[in-house]
Amino acid sequence: DISKLIMNSNSETRWGNQIGTILLPIFYHDVNSDPIQFVRRAKAMIDKKKLSLEAPVTYKFAHFLVSRFGPKVSGDLNYKVVCSTTFTLSNIVGPKDK
């Protein structure tokens, strides 16, 4: 049982979802543009952002909001960001189908 593992664990590993945000602009292209060039440009941009402090800083900011103002304010801000976002990716595992 996972709850017993969490409660009996003496390790310093953190449990739970750790969330950070990276915001990327959307580039529109014309019909004659090369799709591979678009993918290369997007990959270069994402690689640069992964090396930046954007995701860890947004995580620390969200942690600060929750600790200082509570989950309601943090949830409202997160809701506004998600509603203003065109496309979202997540690596959080969803429920397994039976």
Provide structural commentary.
The structure is a single chain. This protein starts with a helix and ends in a 15-residue tail after the last helix. It is mainly alpha-helical and 98 residues long. Helix content is 54%, strand content 0%. It has four helices and no strands. It has one domain (2-83). InterPro entries: O-acyltransferase_WSD1-like (IPR045034), O-acyltransferase_WSD1_C (IPR009721).
Short description:
The chain has helices spanning 2-8, 35-51, 54-69, 71-83. By secondary structure, the chain is mostly helical.
Looking at the structure, what is the overall shape? extended
What fraction strand? Answer: under 5%
Extract low-pLDDT stretches. Answer: none
> What are the secondary-structure elements, in order, as H or E?
HHHH
Strand count, sense and barrel status of the largest sheet are:
none
Number of extended strands: 0
Mean pLDDT: 75
Alpha carbon gap, first and last residue: 19 Å
Helical fraction equals 40-55%
Can you tell me the number of structural domains?
Answer: 1
Task: Draw up the topology in text.
Blueprint (H helix, E strand, L loop, with lengths): L1 H7 L26 H17 L2 H16 L1 H13 L15
Helix pairs in contact: 3-4
GO molecular function, one term: O-acyltransferase activity
Protein name: O-acyltransferase WSD1 C-terminal domain-containing protein
Organism: Genlisea aurea
